[in-house]
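[step 3/7] fold_predict: job queued, chain A
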Amino acid sequence: MSRSLNKVLLIGNLTRDPEIRYTANGVPVASFGLATNRSWKDNNGEIQEAVEFHNIVAWRKMAEICQQILAKGMMVYIEGSLNTRTWEDESGKTNYKTEIRVSEMKLLDSKGKQGAGFDESKSQESSEEQGESNSSSDESKNTGEDSAGASEGSEDNSSEEGLEDDLPF
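[step 4/7] structure written:
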């Protein structure tokens, strides 16, 4: 039997703040955009640049961590797998969306959210509204994870396959 590999490694900047949603079963899902750049010299010796935009999706605890510590403009390392979702819209048209499903994330921006225009007072207000008292650094201490990096466990994620259909993004 032949083996295959579905692995994506990206280093880039967030194009938007992570947006967290919950499936009908209460499973958190965060989505955000990531831009990667490349440059090269053309035949005339001029430097050319191109930007590639990626759709990133994180599930469960990883979704919560991404929502807590990431913000637009931050540089991150993302490791995951390539997934393509298919759905039909109201008119019967088949749509496709290719995404990178995060298994590991490491913050490469040393400034954290404060350096990305993050308003700490708004974060504290929303945390109090949700009844949470732990900051992202407190939570990372409780989970034993570094606040600048996180990794999805090797848990069985096959139950998520049926949950993807109810995601509108």
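[step 5/7] annotate
The first strand starts at residue 8 and ends at 14.
Confidence is low (pLDDT under 50) at residues 117-147, 154-159.
exit 0
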